[in-house]
């Protein structure tokens, strides 16, 4: 009997019945690379391959980062490498400010490269004659087909045999013409945008005396964390740090450069945001600066335009080379078609980079006596422009950790090429020693520029926590029952988490002494009816649903169940036991279980055992000791409620010499 490898690449809940019928007389190896956690029963002739046994996180990280490091150094055109052919002002690499910086595990390209890597390992460990793909990406299909042709393996999708010839160029004359035409529209588009922004923000100018005062500037991604209330403006993420800074340095101004929360919708979203709520926020938030989009940056753009046109023509010529197209080798496959769209976009945006950095340089300069720029997502592409602008003015740029960082969060295993070829923060404030080891030992960020400052916004969980009884009274929860807090995730993040929710409902359906409180993720509200139906189907009448009040629920609960996220970190700091669920074949993203903070739940049965353990309080003293050790390693000064104080201590040398 022939052996066939069936591979799911896209998120799905089950294998199509017609596929099973068509393969009834074939011995099938089933490999789920969709992260969907498909639990459906397989036919007797099918054997499930465990992707977790094939996927080695350390080896993948090594191979992926090696590809990012080595490719831009390959000679691709007249004995020159990409890094020599395409550079930005200030010496930055086009590669490391674009493709090389896209390392987020949730990014579609990174996911596909990971799938390709695991599939390559599967092909090396199995003897198959055919591969059947269940996916929708033509580029990934082509990469897999090229990999399989290496071993004379047939590839099929939707009953059709796939084949591919030597990869042909994507950057053709039509692409080149389109880029040149788009350049002609830039002045009109940017000038019109600046005009609308100026109209909507007229009157928002600082006085000369205010501009001359020493200040720190918080970057645009702050505005995603701003809440406008009847009482004023709240900034929960930054409030603890800013209050401590005000206490120790009352003469240092706090300034904010704001941007729409839905920044991905394009520049014109700035106009809509200002019209609907942004202008009001500028009025209410003391220290808010007018958006950078008031300036056009067309002088910087014009200066960069000849270099931009030359880069487009050069890239067009290079793409005609077969050697160039065959240089993108990863996991024994040619991934040219996966990489080239983003690389072409980066080359075509070189002048736009210069314009945006020029605009931000002007904005920072007009903001006055700025002594430091604080920003989040410091190693991501959008933040690079702010760092580059700050560096032009010799202003320190300080990155501040805003969420969980783990070894597979490859953005933070910063390669040496990224450190030398892209704008990086002058300093990086991290939660604890664990993250420092990731960015400095797995990555190449300089150790002497890391501040272990804890997480100031979590200090309140140590210093000023309301009692459990008052929290339950506020939420109308019983005081004589165990409260289990179940924090959900979006389907995009954890497509298998719906199975966790159903298992929790079923496991607690007969528990009369507990209540399950479901706190839906902000991006998960569309699933609420599904969750209600699951609770009803399980027969569990003790389920309550909440769309808000997470902090109060955390205080009120006896223990938390969630996936690997910052939610578990907050619960651990508060002293609440946790269960870190993971129903996929992937390893845990964060070491909550390995480092002793959480009980495991890799399947339904293990989840039930962990729930029973916490409901019975078995081993509570030992778990408490492990949690405390975990908090010290992972949250540094915040373990004692001193995150804000530590952060101010680190930043004070940048301010002290400038403040009387």
Overall description:
It comes from Stieleria maiorica. With 660 residues, the chain is α/β, with parallel strands linked by helices. Among the domains are: 199-291 and 351-457, Rossmann fold; 464-640, Rossmann fold. It contains 26 helices and 25 strands. The strands form 6 sheets. It has a 7-stranded parallel β-sheet, with helices on both faces. Strands 3-2-1-6-7-8 form a 6-stranded mixed β-sheet, covered by helices on one side. The mean pLDDT is 90.
Short description:
This protein has 660 residues and is an alpha/beta fold.
CATH class placement of one domain = Alpha Beta
The assigned CATH architecture of one domain is 3-Layer(aba) Sandwich
CATH topology of one domain: Rossmann fold
The largest β sheet comes out as: 7 strands, parallel
Helix content: 40-55%
Strand order, largest beta sheet? 13-12-9-16-17-18-19
User: Radius of gyration in whole Å, from Cα?
Assistant: 27 Å
Quick tags:
Rossmann fold, seven-stranded parallel beta sheet, six-stranded mixed beta sheet, 25 strands
